[in-house]
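Late entry, written up from scratch paper. The run itself happened at the end of the previous shift, but nothing got recorded in the book at the time, so transcribing now.
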Amino acid sequence: MTAQVRIAPGRLIHTGGSVVDTASDATVQDSPRGLCFPSLVLAGHRQAVTAAVWSPDGQRVVTASQDGTAKVWDAVTGYCEHTLEGHEGAVTSVAVSPDNVKVATASTDRTARIWDVETGECAKVLDAHTGPVFVVQFSAGGTEVLTASADRTARLWSPSGELLRKLSGHTQALYSATFSPGGTEVLTASHDKTARLWDLSGELRQTFSGHSAHVYKAVFAADGAKVVTCSADDTARVFEAATGQCTRTLVGHASAVYAAAFTPDGSQVLTGSADTHVGLFDVATGQLLRLFQEHAMAVHTVALSADASQVLTAGDDRSVRIFDFASGECLRCFEGHGDHVYTACFSPSCKQVLTASEDATAKIFDI
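Output as recorded:
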């Protein structure tokens, strides 16, 4: 028999380690066999949570929201330490510096901001973009901040707010940008159907072309030697970073490919698609090795645990899942969100999963 606890509206309570937002009536039920419910619910945003990240030390979580704010949370208690207010549009991306002392946010108000984690005060406004900013990221050493925008450019900044470089060459909006594993290059993906590789001086090194529709994301292999791109043309493509040559087109999805991740040795690629499936492809041959088919709607997140034994997925069906990489078996199904799940990521220890959802909450699940 399933036990039920009725919660009075308008309160925050702990239930078996969970923090539950009860702005409306809610019923908490024991988990059915095979399902896992959150250990912490981070509630307080007024609109969709667009992104959520761990601090590198795993002690804090930072969330971004369409309500124009970001929030800093204690990852153990779920206590909201700071609400970062100042943006005049939705906050689209968030990052924590490698030393855990700064937060960077990006917004549709055309700016990015640098904040002090301990005080919650805004230290700098990065305001050179002329369109919505969709990406913000610290370099591995924390010496540069990367932003990417609908204004067709990416930009490099110092943490003190100085504009260092403008990466200009794309002809349409940028959807993603990331530093290379070695921190010496930047990879961007755009609505113009290409991805591009830049050095930190702003020089264009390679253009990765061949897609027939916009490129949502581009990702490096762990050694930086290969790049995989995800496109609305229903394919992913693998490129040599040094030459720009497309070595394989990964075919097997029936709709747009939103996400991708290399295995640590770079020999295989996982993809997430609007067709509800997660694919596993061989990089050398392009062969589709397996489809993970548990999701009922589009998959937006694909990630591997540090030891590559588990695959983390999340999508529009409100669920987050962990699969065994070797067998393809679904090991965990994390339930509790009331709307699309935008992102999911492993904690630094890989013992927990953090999610962000359209339902205005982020959640932490124990694995």
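The mean pLDDT is 91.
(Scratch paper discarded after transcription.)
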